[in-house]
Hints:
The structure holds 3 protein chains of 3 kinds.
Chain A: E1 2-13, E2 16-27, E3 31-35, H1 42-48, E4 59-67, E5 70-71, H2 79-85, E6 86-89, H3 100-110, H4 116-129, H5 133-136, H6 149-162, E7 167-171, H7 179-192, E8 197-201, H8 205-211, E9 214-219, E10 222-228, H9 229-234, H10 239-245
Parallel strand pairs in A: 3-8, 3-9, 6-7, 7-8
Antiparallel strand pairs in A: 1-2, 1-4, 4-5, 9-10
Helix pairs in contact in A: 3-4, 3-6, 4-6, 6-7
Chain B: H1 2-17, H2 19-36, E1 48-52, H3 63-70, E2 88-91, H4 95-98, H5 101-104, H6 111-121, E3 125-130, E4 141-142, H7 150-154, E5 159-160, E6 168-169, H8 172-203, H9 206-221, H10 224-243, H11 251-275, H12 279-287, H13 292-303, H14 305-321, H15 324-329, H16 347-354, H17 363-397
Parallel strand pairs in B: 2-3
Antiparallel strand pairs in B: 1-3, 1-4, 5-6
Chain C: H1 10-48, H2 53-57, E1 60-61, E2 66-67, H3 70-101, H4 106-120, H5 123-137, H6 144-168, H7 172-180, H8 185-214, H9 217-220, H10 242-251, H11 256-294
Antiparallel strand pairs in C: 1-2
Helix pairs in contact in C: 1-11, 3-6, 3-8, 4-6, 5-6, 6-8, 7-8, 8-11, 10-11
Amino acid sequence: MEKIEARNVDFYYGNFQALKHISMDIPQNKVVAFIGPSGCGKSTFLRLFNRMNDLVPGARLTGEILIDGKNIYAPEVQVDELRKEVGMVFQRPNPFPKSIFENVAYGLKVNGIKDKEFIAHRVEESLKGAALWNEVKDKLGASAYALSGGQQQRLCIARAMAVSPSVLLMDEPASALDPISTAKIEELICEMRNQVTVVIVTHNMQQASRVSDKTAFFYMGEMIEYDDTKVIFTNPHKEATQNYITGRFG
Amino acid sequence: MKRFLEKAVKWILTGSGFVTSAVILLIIAFLFTGGAGLFGESVVEEGYVLALNEDNPVRSMTAAEIKAVFDEDIVNWKELGGPDLQIKTFRLEDADEYFTEESLGPQYEYAGAAIVSLVKSHPGMVAFVPESLIPENSGLNFIEDKNISPGEVLGGTEWFPTAAPAPLFGVLPLLAGTLWVSLFAILFALPFGISIAVYMSEVASERVRGFLKPVIELLNGIPSVVYGFFGLIVIVPMLQQVFGLPVGESGLAGSLVLAIMALPTIVTVAEDAMRSCPRTLREASLALGATKWQTIYKVVIPSSMSGIASGVVLGIGRAVGETMAVLMVTGNAAVIPTSILEPLRTIPATIAAELGEAPAGGAHYQSLFLLGVILFFITFFINMCVECISSRNRSKNS
Amino acid sequence: MERPSYPQGCSVRKRRAQTFAFAAFRTLSLLIVLILFAILGFIVVKGAGAINWDFLTKAPADGMTSGGIFPAIAGTLLLMLGSAIVAFPVGIMSGIYMNEYASKGWVVKFIRLMTNNLSGVPSIVFGLFGMALFVKYLGFGDSILAGSLTLGLLSLPLVIRTTEEALKDIPDGIREGSLALGATKLQTIWKVVLPMGMPRIITGLILSLGRVSGETAPILFTCAAYFFPQLPTSIFDQCMALPYHLYVISTSGTDIEAQQPIAYGTALVLVAIVLIINLLASLLRKYFENRLKTH
């Protein structure tokens, strides 16, 4: 079953065309990785799925992106409703300057949930889901900034998951972390498969091959190749993909 | 030669680097030496004495008591711990009530003796006369000559620097007036300032912001005397009508003008702080389904709180130190304000209004320097608060 | 994890809250623009009637109930010039020292603290201080010299901060490039750093002149004359000044009817000076920006 469908997407920043005629289907509850050199458009494409690019002045999109069969760029769609459904984890850990508890509870509160018991329960569940509970359960009131970088990123994952999105977008979630923290994040991604559709942008090809079911290779605003991860990394059909994964450019 | 030049320039530059510090020290030194002299002045006007009948046991009076006696607010020695006796005051101006011109002599050479005998014949009399008139061994008693005490000045509730025989230098009404008018100014300016800062940094398009920025700069650039003039001509009559006041010059008029004047400071600093709130934090909030407004009040404002706070504190500093506009619209009544609709008087306005008339080196003159010292320390303290807030913020961010 | 049941209508509510809040901000911002325009408009409309050639070039006459304000305009310009002579060299040098020479540590922190404190000192305290030091202690008397020195000290923090910020934005690579060619530190600053920072420094200096032109409290007891119809002939003369003139005419006038138009006219000239200075600064800023782009 397809969770996200992109149909002929062109995307412009002012006069610059950042994405060219991209069409792809992302299956439900799978992990899909976007790889490609810097500036190839993979992050831009990812940020279209929760309309994060709406904030950029001069941005323009043609084509359609459907989630659960509904066009998310249709005029009646409310972005805040959409973003409840499509969570996001960013490149650098960006916890709010609030307590650990408040960070995780934030998404619930801004979406109108007031039931304290439910929130507390949910915070615990989410932190457990992000394998952070044991490390922070005694200091939920402490500032999120007191955590290490890796812990902060897992907190951000817990924060995103607390809202219970059906899609989780991850924009190079481990690029600012050390290898041990990276491994933990990857482990989490593998555990979340089955619950949520994960789309992850990564620079790191080993990471893509370790965590993803399918991989798309982007180059100069175009999607060159999209296939099962195994195929992309062992037997790519396009020469550019081959060159990239063997490290001949990028 | 080249090396020597390099060295010389370096020393000159180093010297100029410390000029501001030197100016601060000089300000402190000059204000202090000017202001501290006040406590070396005697309560009773220089060169004068207060003479009493030899049977009167009262020996000391505070400046406030002396003023009350001569204003006939205190009419019996009992109230000052003396005998139950009516108080009768005598000043030189009253001389023709008691004496004929002949009895004083053509050159007033008999005046001293005449006054001594007058005081001797009236048991309840207190005479305010030049020291030089009273002959030695006159047999009269005198109110002890005391210096003005810091307690009387810092805790005094009456500012009456030209009163004779004993001027009153209580700074409380002025201090209260300053704080009162600044407090209201900030209360008015705060909602405006924060709203405009939020609007400029978060809501407005680049074009609207490009229009608002020079507007705020211009508001900051208009001279305070022009604000005062505008207040005097427009705001004061308006308030008088709206509230049906006897006079429109009031604390409220001052606060309104000060609010406009403090606004640019608040807006600029608060906007800077909000703009420096990292984009990633905003994105995190939006990505969780928060609206822009939720993001602003739950993330942007809390995380730029210290910047906003410094803006507000700086605005208070500006309001406290403002002179001309306040001088022109507050009515300058030196009483402890009980309502914002009454005239009041601030420390800067007092200095500006009175320094020109105070004889150099006298108690009044020195008291104005003391006000300068107080004002300097209030603003110094405010600045230190700002430094603390922003340096704490800097260390938090790094 | 079970899906939380989000309350119905919350989304509509929070969007409505946003619309409301933003409308409030927009209104308040608009209001402040209106206030500025009201103040400026009031002064321009009322003052325009008083402005004519005689008003700008003649001395006050008939106990200041008629005539012009030329001595006040001249005095204000003189004071601006005087304060510039005092503040600019010292302020720029101090800014250079802070950014180029002082080791980043407690020295810079201390100087910056003192500079910030000085900029927070109320103008009336500068007036007191100027009177005590320049008028009395150094014996300059009420004079242009004393007034210029006082105003110069007042604008010093602004000049220092402008210079420092202009120089701070020049990348270190440029200095290193010059030093690597064998230039001394002084040559680097003189030939490379200062010219690059100049546009912003000049803009800041012009703005500081604007501030000086409107200050009243510092010159009350150091310089300003109530009535001094001829032009000053030496720096030990007193002079009239626009802000002080406006103050006396509007508060302690002898003939309100006759003096009202003079007050409006004076206010207009004063505001015009500030406007021109602000305009000049922003034009210069644009000009320098464009030149930077085309080169």
